[in-house]
Amino acid sequence: MSGRDIRAKLGSMRLNKWGFSVNYKWIEGFRYEGSPQFTGRVPTYDQLDAQINKYFPKLHTTFKVGASNILNKKNFQVYGGPRIGRLAYFSILVELDKKTN
Questions:
Q1: Class of residue 96 by CB neighbours under 10 A (exposed 0-12, middle 13-18, buried 19+)
Q2: 64 near 55, Cβ under 8 Å?
Q3: How far apart are CA 27 and CA 68, in angstroms?
Q4: Three-state SS string across 19-31, please?
Q5: How high is the pLDDT of residue 78?
Q6: Residue 11 banded pLDDT, cuts 50, 70, 90
Q7: How far apart are CA 89 and CA 66, in angstroms?
Q8: Which of 6, 42, 54, 56 gets the highest tally of CB atoms within 10 A of its CB?
Q9: How confident is residue 98, by pLDDT bands cut at 50, 70 and 90?
Q10: Strands 13-27 and 45-56
Q11: Distance between CA atoms of residues 27 and 78, nearest Å
């Protein structure tokens, strides 16, 4: 589920140019075949990712903050690999060729 260019009003405060994304992933367990010592079953796991963003038209810039595996359910994606938890991030997207309306 996602949304962009959201406009809302909270009391006397107006929110413009906000966006969000929420993504649920379910990965069915599978047999991972690597080298002989790294062959085995990876169990089924699920995770929830989310991010919010704000666009600033005068700067032609979008700021994003989010996290994958937001609930920090540790899992491994390859047999013999490390357990992976939450990963948080912040990004800045500058659109250099953006035309001003």
A1: exposed
A2: no
A3: 14
A4: EEEEEEEEECCEE
A5: 84
A6: confident
A7: 6
A8: 42
A9: low
A10: antiparallel
A11: 12
The token pair that represents 47 in the structure block? 């995770």
- The token duo for 8 is 């809302």
CA pair distance 17, 25, nearest whole angstrom: 27
On whether the CB atoms of residues 69 and 76 are closer than 8 A, the answer is no
Could you tell me which residue, 72 or 12, shows the higher pLDDT? Answer: 72
pLDDT of 14: 83
Q: What is the mean pLDDT of the chain?
A: 89
